[in-house]
Structure formats: C-alpha cells, structure tokens
Amino acid sequence: MSGSEVVIVGGGVTGLSAGWWLARSGVKVTVLDKFIVGWEASGRNGGGASHYASPLFDEEQRLWPQMDELLGYPTEHQKGRILIAMTERQWEQYRFIAERHTRLNHPVELLDVKQVQEAVPLAGDNSFGGVHYKFGGHANPQRSVQAYAWALQDLGGKIVQHSPVTGFETAGGKVTAVKTANATYGCDAVVVAAGPQIPQLMAQLGVNVPLAAARAEMIITEPAPMMPLGGVDGHKIYGRQTLRGNLAYGGGPHEWLDVDATGPAARPSTPLARNLAKRLAELLPKAAHLNVIRSWAGIIENSPDGRPIIDRLTSPDNVVVASMSSVGFGLSPASGHAIRDLVIDGKCSFADIDILKLSRFDNLESDWREKRGWMPIS
Amino acid sequence: MELNFTGTDICAINGTRSAPETHYDIVVVGAGPSGIAAAIDAAKAGAKVLLVDENPVSGALMGNDIPLYFGGRMTAATQNTERMLEAIFMSMPALETAMDAGVELLLGTTAWGVYRNGPGVASLPQQVVGLADSERSWLVGFDKIVLATGARDLAMSFPGWNQPGVMGAAALQMLLTRYEAFAGQRILVLGSHDLALETALLAQARGIDVVGLIEVRDAPQGHSELVAKVAAAGIAIHCGHTIASATGGINGIESATLSTGDVIACDTICVAIGLIPSIELVDAMHGPRALNAMRGGYIPAGEPSVTAVGDCAGLADCGFDHIAYRMDWMRALSDISADDTIICQCEEVTRADLIGVQPPNYLSRPAPMCARSLDTLLKDGPANPDQIKRLTRAGMGVCQGRRCRDQVAMLLAIEADKPFGSIPLASHRAPVRPLPLKILAEWDEPTEMEAAWDVWFGIPTQWVPVEDLNTPYQDEHRQMLYTGMYT
C-alpha cells in the first residue's frame, strides 16, 4: 500500500500512533483533529503503560523502552511499578494479582512494609505491603502525544488541526473521501479513532458502535523529592511521580455523559479532588504536606465489556474503527501497530486480536447502557 | 458464564458526593472595600451572608508569590499570623461594621473552587464553593456568590528578575500599608501610569527611598496631577527607556542597569506596569469572560449566580489601554532579554526554550526535538498557551502561573505576530490556590463515596488477562476484584 492515502479521524494517541506506524510503511497519512492533537483523554490521563489484560500487552512492553529512539522525541517513559496496599482487602487483592502475574511469567516481587518504605521514600509505615512489577511503566501523556504527531510529520505525514470531520463520501462499498467543513480528503482507507465521537461518525456509515462516554478526574501536586521509581500507586488510585517530581493521580467514581458529534462540551473537574487528595495523602503520607496545584478532568469512552474495539469492517471494507475503551494511552505503541496491520494487511501480525472485533456486539441489546447503569444523570 | 446486570453502576459518582456543610444566601469572596460593602448590603437586606478572605496567607505561600507578587521582600512580621490578623482588622475598620451587620467573617480562609452543574457535570447536589483554612477544607452551598477577589500583579521578566527584590506594586502596597512589613529601603519603579505613580508616592511617604521611575514610552503615562506630585517629590521619571538587567547578591537585588547603560543602586525593583483582574475562580468554573483592554484584561462576563465587584470585575476605566501598554513593555523587555532569561521561575523555563518549545533540561533533546520551534508548531495551528505549557512546562509550577501566565501570552502574540486578544487565555484550574494534600482531603467522606471507589471503571471484563478468559480464573478474578454491576 505504499503511496496510498490513509485519512485518520482523530488526533488522539491511538490515531496518531496508527498514523505514525502507517507513515513508517510509506503510506501517505493525513490526521484530522477537531482541535489540537491529544487535547482530550490522550493528554489528560495517568500515563500508565502496564496493561497485562490486553492481547496487545507483549507488544506494549516490547515497544515502550524503544519509543524515545523510534520517535526521535522524549516521552519520559520509565520502567516498573509498585502497588501499595493500604487496607487488608487491598493486600489480598494485590497478592491475587501478583499470583496471576507469576503464573503468566510477568516478573513481580512482593514487598513487606519495610521494603515498601525502602523502595518508596514517600510511603509510611501504614501500608500492608506492596507488589513490585518488574515490567510495565509509565510515560508523560502530553509529551508522548506530541512526539507521535511530530514523528509522523517527520515521515511526511500531515496533521490537520481545528478540523472536525463532518462526514464521508462512499462509493463501491468503500469510503472514498473524508469531509471537514473546509475540505474534502480523498483516501484509499480510513481509520476512525475519534474516541467518544466514534458512534456518531460511524452511524453515518450505517455502522453501530456501542460506546458510552464518562468523565474521570485527576490531581497533581507540586514537585516532591525524586523517588527511585516513579510508578507508585495502589490504594485504588493510579498515577505516577513525573520526572519533574510532581505527583499526578486519578481514580474513583466516574460520571456517565452524553457526548454529541462535536465532542465533549466541557471537561469540568469537581470536588472529587478532595477524595483523591485523601487517598494520595494516605498512600504517600510523607507527601501529605505537598500542595495540590491543579485538578482536571477528561472524557473517555467505554465499550460494553470495557475492552477495546479494533476492527477492520467488512462494509465499508476500507475502514478500521479503533476505540481503546478508556485504556488507550499506555497501549498506544501496540494499538497503532495493530491498526497499521489491519489497514495494510487486513490482519494483525503480532497478536490474536479477534477478541477486539466489533462483531462481538452484534447481538447486543439496545438498552445495554440502561442495563449497566451507564446512563447520564438526568 | 451468564452475567445479569443490576441496572446500577455501583462505581458511578451518582449519589456519592457529600452535601455542603452549610448553606448561605450569599457568599462573598474577598474582604476588600468592594467585598465588605457587598456583604454589608446583603446582610442589611436580611440575607445570610458569609464573607471570606484568604489573608493573612501563610509565610510559605507569600514566599511563592501567592496571592501577590511579594518578591521575597517581606519582613519576619509576616510569619506571625496573630499580628497579621490584627493588622487586617486595624487597616479595615469596615470589617467590624460588617460583623455588626450580621455578616459571618472568616479570615485566613481561601475560596479555591466554585462548582455547579452544567455542561459535563450533573452530579453535584448543589452549587458549592470550596473553602480552606490552615486546618482543613470544606464545601459551602450558596444561592449567590459575589467575587471581590481584586487584582493581582503583572510580573515582567528581564535579565536578573528572578531574584529576591523584584516585586509587584499591589504586593508592595499591601506590605507598606496593611502589614507594615516591607523589607526594602531603595526602590526603582517600572512604569509611570497611575499605579506606578501612586506606588512611588506611597513608598516615599512611608520613608522609602524611591530612586526613580522607568517608562518605556516617551512620556509619563499617568494622570497629570499624579505626574506633577511625583515631580514635586523630586522623583525622576526616565522616559523612553527600559530596564536592561538587574544584578544582586545573596540578599537579592543590588542594582539595576537601564537601557541607557546607567546603573542605579536599589534593593527593590517594583514592577508597576499593570494589574490583572483576579478571575481565577470564574475561569476555573468555565464561566464566561471577555477581554477588556481598558479594564486590565479578562473580566467575568455574565455567569449566572456569580457577581463580580471591585477590581476583579475590571479595573476602573480611565481611558487607558492597559493591553497596548503592557505589550509595549513586553516588546522592549523582550528585545533586551537574553536567550537564557528565565520566563517561568517555578520551572526555570528560559525565553529560548519557550520560543523553541523545548522540553525541560532533565530530558534529552535529540536532533528532531532541537529542530522543533514555535515556528514549526504555528504551522499546525494558532498558538495556544496550554499547549506551550504542556511542552515547555512554563506555567506548570507552584505559583500556578501567576508570574508567567500573562508574559507567555504576550510573548506568543509577539512571536506569532498576532494581536494579544487572539491568544487564548491559559486555563485556570481548581484549586486556584496551592493547597496541601492533607488540607484539601475530605477526611470524613461519605460511606457512599468509599463504596463506589474503584481505581478505574469497575468493569470486570476490562482487566481480566486475555489468557484467563473463558477459564475458571475469569470468575475468580471477578469475585476477587469486583463486587458490583453484575448479580
């Protein structure tokens, strides 16, 4: 497919990684984004990269340590992670997860309270223990998103910002062009990676993609002294110490929303920042005096089973749809690779991703959101 | 196995939030003259009124130039909270009038966020303002909120500005009048509009040696009466010049060098070029605001249930274009600044790195990174300070961008050759004042919140390892890690 043209709808981390992978294969790529690359969930998340539940996990783990070099730009990727249990129940759960990792040959080590304190200087003597993942890691979402975008441009790809996609042109069972308010982009293939806007866009092609959007929130503190390992979380919050030293953490209850074709109307944070602050102060008591300097929110979409949808459709047969179902940042090096394979070869070369096919929802009941309680507050 | 849904997502926010501790008809934020007057009026009309003011703020926050640009020129007196409280009451007799009128007054209490249901959120039991003192934070419900948060100092960078002794006019006035806690003796003032002239006269009246004013334009900018008073006081106004650099030692500023090459000995350089209406709370709640050059910057523009009074609603319009004036200063200071002049003090972002959209020094800069710049970024779309912030870290520090936010926007306008008003306002985020984790924390959160809390969405199938699907482990996983959603 070298020399052919692929239009990617959505300049989030998944679309950008797909575009970068396609550009590496000599494809002419144009990424269309409604605003600025990575402005939604891709630039607002916790930066975790340890997604062992995914069929893309091995590829995620293989690629992240190379990404700075492959992209040519810093991503701040750091390896490893420690989960700290702050209740007896969490300790039971984290040991269960550790046992699963051991069985799957993912290297983990159980830490007692003293070892937790040694490994995590900001931790206290109030934990029940920890699990040290000798795999996985984290990166800076905002820097990584821009790195993909720049690397894609360096390979000749185009990024068109401030250009929401309004529709498609089709002919002979294929999408032949993607339209924005100001331009029409002819294409040989399309990747729709537009996050919460995917259902509205795909409905224009007569394809039902069941996704529900919700808001999640994070807080960040002023810099703390650098810990030997920044990927420290647990206590039912996720996050990391950034390479600057700030503690960035999220988690907790989400709020289901309706998002229309133009994208989220707003991303308001709420007093949930107080509940995040409580848990972070408990998790890292020696950081409890640190100032929280910002909170923010992001809007992410989930599929009915919470797993991604990465699929090349049968009709139109030149469209790949990709939603990472609220867990997209860390998997992005691998999701982009998978999407590249589907666009060019029709099949993922490195993993069996049949479980991510859209057709698993063919018989989904029409009231699937109501059944799950995933409806907006009326 | 067959899964049956309950119709309820137990990990959703619905019904888990705490109700506010108290409710007032009116909450007034800021106990300056406008805030006090608004509180007294409301109380006299029979309303239940709460008046809060963040002052006195802790010495540690003042050291980070919060809320004003104190520049490290406070005496040790500012470390004594009791003395500071007394100073506030002494300087604001109307506070007693307000209390006599039935206004509930909380000093040393910060309003750090205003929240209400609207686009993107419907889960708040009612609209609330987040408050915090030195012990804890809490939420207060209100029918109406009056913002009387005043104006903050516009900081401007030049070589050497990032040392103790460079400070703002509002901060200097507060230290001189209210707290009597200014630690300098010889000040040089930048600017010659009313703010600069009044500050110079006030300082001299308080026994401070005012060694001169520097004006970038060709003539003094303020009211002619004030200009005459300054002249009569024997204070020189050096027009058509700017400051080229400041030098100092361990105690901060020792001298300033003008663009003429003249060196002026001083221990304080007061940046009196402008004040910015303090609209953080409105902007952080995504309330409407509009740029008004005659009134000092962005001002609130019609948020229901929010009223802005005093300087935060816009500086008094005296027919002076504050934005054009600041831009003249910015161009002049930008011309004399060096590549390594710091723009963001918290994150130590230099002018060259800001304009080069380069990452911080602790990251590597491979060749492709070095080839990137604001110029290449502008080819992708208009300049956006929030994007610049993400890439360079300018504005990401503990002062929450108070010292560099306005400068970054002005620099972007200059570099992109666009009007200032075309540069979006960098976002304000709650908490709009730095708050320690242990203070912000809701220690007595509702049991409903704890019950709903999951690290992510609580969707069992989201985290089952793919190897475990359709094995007995799948159900074990669900039972160990999840409790709700399915029966």
Write the layout of secondary structure elements.
The complex is a heterodimer of chains A (378) and B (487).
Chain A: E1 5-9, H1 13-24, E2 28-32, H2 57-63, H3 67-71, E3 78-85, H4 88-103, E4 108-111, H5 113-119, E5 129-138, H6 141-154, E6 158-160, E7 165-171, E8 174-180, E9 184-186, E10 189-192, H7 198-203, E11 212-221, E12 232-234, E13 238-241, E14 247-250, E15 255-257, H8 272-283, E16 291-302, E17 309-312, E18 319-323, H9 332-345, H10 368-372
Helix pairs in contact in A: 1-6, 1-9, 2-9
Chain B: E1 22-29, H1 33-44, E2 49-53, H2 59-63, H3 81-91, H4 94-100, E3 104-107, E4 110-115, E5 128-132, E6 137-147, E7 151-153, E8 166-168, H5 169-177, E9 186-190, H6 194-205, E10 209-215, H7 224-232, E11 237-239, E12 243-249, E13 252-258, E14 263-265, E15 268-271, E16 275-277, H8 280-284, E17 289-292, E18 297-300, E19 306-308, H9 322-336, E20 342-344, E21 349-350, H10 351-355, H11 367-370, H12 374-378, H13 385-392, H14 405-416, E22 435-436, H15 437-440, H16 447-452, H17 472-481
Parallel strand pairs in B: 1-2, 1-6, 2-3, 6-19, 8-15, 9-10, 9-15, 10-11
Antiparallel strand pairs in B: 4-5, 5-6, 7-16, 12-13, 13-14, 17-18, 20-21
Helix pairs in contact in B: 1-4, 5-6, 6-7, 9-14
CATH superfamily of the largest domain in chain A: FAD/NAD(P)-binding domain
CATH class of the largest domain in chain A: Alpha Beta
**Biggest β-sheet of chain A: count, sense, barrel?**
6 strands, mixed
Q: In percent, how helical is the residue content of chain A? A: 25-40%
Shape of chain A: globular
Strand content of chain B: 15-25%
Radius of gyration of chain A: 21 Å
Helical percentage of chain B: 25-40%
Biggest β-sheet: strands ordered side by side in the sheet of chain A: 6-2-1-10-18-17
Q: Total number of β-strand segments of chain A?
A: 18
Mean pLDDT of chain A: 97
* Number of strand elements of chain B: 22
**Distance between the terminal alpha carbons of chain B, to the nearest Å?**
12 Å
> How can the largest sheet of chain B be summarized?
7 strands, mixed
Q: What's the helix count of chain B?
A: 17
CATH fold name of the domain at 339-422 in chain B, please?
A: Arc Repressor Mutant, subunit A
Q: Which stretches of chain A of 5+ consecutive residues score pLDDT under 50?
A: none
| Uncertain stretches of chain B | none
